[in-house]
Amino acid sequence: MPRIVERVTRVAGHGVRAAILPYENPRVPTRLQVSAERAPGEGDGRRHVYACPLNVFLTWDDEEIERLLGVGGEARFLRYLDAIAAKLDAWQGAREVDLATRSQAEPSVLFGGLDFEA
Q: Parallel, antiparallel, or unpaired for β 17-21 and 55-60?
């Protein structure tokens, strides 16, 4: 998880915080919270400034985590880290989240059951 935190904060840019939230129970697994205050301004015409500040939670499928511990897991994980920028971009469009303006349409967004495919 620390390597994912480092990569997400590098890709997302200045002002974005990423924090590991520990496992609470089966319904509230370990998760990564990505948050920030909204960026000032009205957007640039290509970007939309949503009403809520950035507050996204990421969780990964348990079976996917176990697969990383098996043969080839480290190489698979490294490919995943390299693909995080593209994945974040795709996730934004799917859920009305905009990293550039540090805003989103809903108060919190969950990207759950993620895999480690590159």
A: unpaired
Q: Which structural domain, as residue segments, surrounds residue 101?
A: 2-114
Amino acid making up residue 65: I
Torsion of CA 85, 81, 26, 31, to 10 degrees: -50
Show the tokens assigned to 55: 């507050």
> What's the pTM?
0.86
Cα–Cα distance, 88 to 91 (Å, whole number): 5
Q: Where in the chain does DSSP place strands (E)?
A: 17-21, 31-35, 52-53, 55-60, 97-98, 103-104, 109-114
Which helix (DSSP H) or strand (DSSP E) does residue 67 occupy? helix 62-68
Residues 6 or more apart whose Cβ sits within 8 Å of residue 99: 12, 13, 16, 54, 88, 92
Split into its structural domains, the chain has a count of: 1
Quick: pLDDT tens for 11-49.
Answer: 998 889 999 999 999 888 999 999 998 766 555 555 668
